[in-house]
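Hi, here's the filled form for the chain we discussed.

Project: internal
Contact: R.S.
Residues: 462
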Amino acid sequence: MTTAEEQQFLDGLDKKLWNAADKLRSTLDAAQYKHVVLGLIFLKYVSDAFGIRREELEAQFRDKEHDYFLDPADCDKPDDYEAEITSELEERDYYTEENVFWVPVLARWDTLKNNAKLSQGTTVTLVDATEYKFSTVGRLIDDALEAIEKVNPKLKGVLNRRYTQLRIDQSKLGELIDLISTVPFHHASLNAKDILGHVYEYFLGQFALAEGKKGGQFYTPKAIVTLIVEMLEPFHGRVYDPAMGSGGFFVQSEQFIQNRQGRVNDVSIYGQEYNHTTWQLAAMNMVIRGIDFNFGKEPANTFTNDQHPDLRADYIMANPPFNMKEWDVGVKEHDPRWDGFDTPPSNNANFAWLMHMLYHLAPDGSQGLLLANGSMSSNTNSEGAIRRALIEKDLVECMVALPGQLFTNTQIPACIWFLTKNKRERTDAAGRKLRARKGEILFIDARNLGYMKDRVLRDFKP
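And the returned structure, exactly as it came back:
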């Protein structure tokens, strides 16, 4: 839990960064400037984290009591000693041993800040003695991202290197770099990852508001994510989201575990996302928090190109697109995911999502997914028969009817389905004794809960 002082610091940071985004709002739509701003914030973060580690190392090299101490007596002259320290500070292993990204000179924030306003064609000598010919700010940023991606395998394919292609005044990018330069990713009691994680989540929410309906494609309101995570309690095992967006369920799962003094490494993350840029947002969301993940080989359609065909997950959570039509183009006629059920109708993917998740659920697993309220009553085509089969097979554990105005992108009334394959008496992954629940379904009417946090959106109290 953050203190009042920490929250004040984070709120001030949010405001400053959103002002940074405003500098591009007049020239780019929200879908584009989301990536522009987040990419630069990420660069600033990795550079700051690298700089903090660099300062620690220099102090250790000069500390007689430390294992990394470099003895001046081993050098002939003071200048040789300083050169030795400078050389050691460029050894990559010192950074990777502490899970700090190695940042090449070209990608360091000072390089961006000091060279973003050069004249086109200017050649500069960087601190590592390499020469760089400047063309545009966009090219400089893309080259920096490429440089950091090359030496950090975890970042391969994650960073959005499209700044050169942006059709905007390059001086705007220079101004944005100046503003982000004033943002500190260090604090007396908050670590850099926590600060960046907060900023990233805040921005995703703000961008979702700015994009309106399209924003819901990558962002699920925190109130709903938290509710599903708190009810499933993913302490240990495999966590899967087949429509992961920007990865909000994974982030909240990590926070849930940390808040209860659990071990984040006890959970394995699996996800899938069709949209390439949203896939990148999710991957970056994991990387900045140091969460290991498996999002498959590539962004892909969950129904036609399942990236985790053999996965049996202990916890599955999702907010798939509501009422998606023509989802089954390219899906086999006798797909094993529908075994024992009628085939979901072509004009609505709601039960296709539910059954895809059920297929990937481990024998003792639990799943929660958000669907439109129509999923509870529709008898169109095979939906009524599928729902009846779910009840008869005793797979439904709980239904939650949600209040309206929780979403930035739709006013369609929604509910949460919780399913499990095992209602027998047992001990779960968290060590809790579960009573037998055979034939029982819990119904929760939450339609009148929550409060209006502004004129448009409702939220649940923390």
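Let me know if anything looks off before we file it.
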